[in-house]
Design goal:
Peroxisomal Thiolase, Chain A, domain 1, five-stranded mixed β-sheet, four-stranded mixed β-sheet, binds oxa(dethia)-CoA
Length: about 325
């Protein structure tokens, strides 16, 4: 038996305002047909006044705690993955901590853009295994709508806002919980997906810029590689996987990655149609969706994967 980080609760949050492709077509030169054909996206949720990365994260975290039946004061660690924090500092994780009424715990943010949740999960897994906390909230939360160039049709149609959370619990177990994680980064590709501003450079927040085709090409190769790597690390084959919970950037990337690995497309959780790309929130949002609709059940072998700006990419194998 080993000390393992087991997922005991999941939660998610979406801003109420749902924006359709047709609504975007009134603003930029695009069409519902183009967006659906090239990305699979039909709608996204956009944060309104007063809705922030921390408020969405808090709602998702509360739902994860409720699902597990665990009181907030049991939480010893909060790791929040985000590229769109409420403030430059302090970490949005400390705002979530306060909103949950937790007086003292470890709380910090992790920045790895769309791979943020995989980085946060890996960090939290190792901290839980190392005895730093018995209960840990791992959250991905984003308000990308605030860094989009709403006049750039090539990017503004692709992203949405939202949050997802998991509650990890330290348990003595063998084949349960987070079984393996693998992370990568290659900063040579910084200029393919970035924000053209920053505290230490322009002194502005900036807007998201992306060379979509280039990112697409790298995504399929990197995701297939890291999935093979993490499955080998966990001692499992791809045909043993019950569910793939991928980063939701583009339906065509999900299909191409599944094909490359010989995974049954019916076993891939798809939420990009309704949420678009919510960056660090997309994996835990998709996970919570599939847990709540009954597809993912206790004992299932699941793989999580993501790829994003940096580039960064990573994957995890979890016995749910
Ligand atoms: O989360 C991090 C990871 N991010 C990703 O994984 C994103 C990866 N990339 C993609 O998902 C795709 O590359 C996109 C969806 C961004 C674009 O699809 P594409 O098939 O690679 O299209 P493209 O960029 O090659 O553009 C094709 C055409 C262009 O017109 P021309 O130059 O052929 O005349 C674009 O100007 O489509 C045009 N276009 C649009 N047309 C209508 C670009 N955006 C739009 C739009 N509506 N919204």
């Amino acid at each position: 038996m080993n000390r393992r980080a087991v997922i005991v609760g999941t939660g998610s949050a979406l801003p109420p305002r749902r924006v359709t492709n047709a609504e975007l077509a009134e603003r930029v030169q695009t069409s519902h047909e183009w967006i659906v054909e090239r990305t699979g996206i039909e709608a996204r949720h956009i944060a309104g006044d007063g809705e922030t990365t921390a408020t969405l994260a808090t709602e998702a975290a509360r739902k994860a705690l409720d699902a597990a039946g665990v009181a907030a004061d049991q939480v010893g660690l909060i790791v929040l993955a985000t590229a769109t924090p409420d403030q430059t500092f302090p970490a949005s994780a400390t705002r979530v901590q306060t909103a949950l009424g937790i007086d003292d715990c470890i709380a910090f943010d992790v920045a790895a853009v769309c791979t943020g949740f995989l980085y946060a999960l890996s960090v939290a897994d190792n901290m839980v295994k190392g005895g730093m906390a018995d209960y840990a909230l791992v959250i991905g939360s984003e308000t990308f709508s605030r860094i989009l160039d709403w006049d750039d049709r090539a990017t503004c149609v692709l992203f949405g806002d939202g949050a997802g959370a998991v509650l990890l619990h330290a348990e003595e177990a063998q084949d349960k919980g987070v079984l393996a994680t693998r992370l990568h980064a290659d900063g040579r590709h910084n200029d393919l997906l970035y924000v053209d501003g920053g505290v230490s450079t322009t002194g502005t927040v900036g807007k998201l810029r992306m060379k979509g085709k280039e990112v697409f090409r790298h995504a399929v190769v990197n995701l297939a590689d890291v999935l093979n790597e993490v499955l080998a690390a966990a001692g499992h084959r791809s045909d043993e996987v019950d569910w793939v919970v991928p980063h939701q950037a583009n339906k065509r990337i999900l299909d191409a990655t599944a094909r490359k690995l010989g995974l049954d497309p019916a076993r891939v959780i798809v939420t990009v149609d309704q949420h678009a790309n919510t960056s660090a929130a997309s994996v835990p949002l998709a996970l919570d969706t599939a847990v709540r609709d009954g597809r993912i059940k206790a004992g299932d072998l699941i793989v999580l994967e993501a790829m994003g700006g940096g580039f960064t990419w990573g994957a995890a194998v979890v016995r749910y």
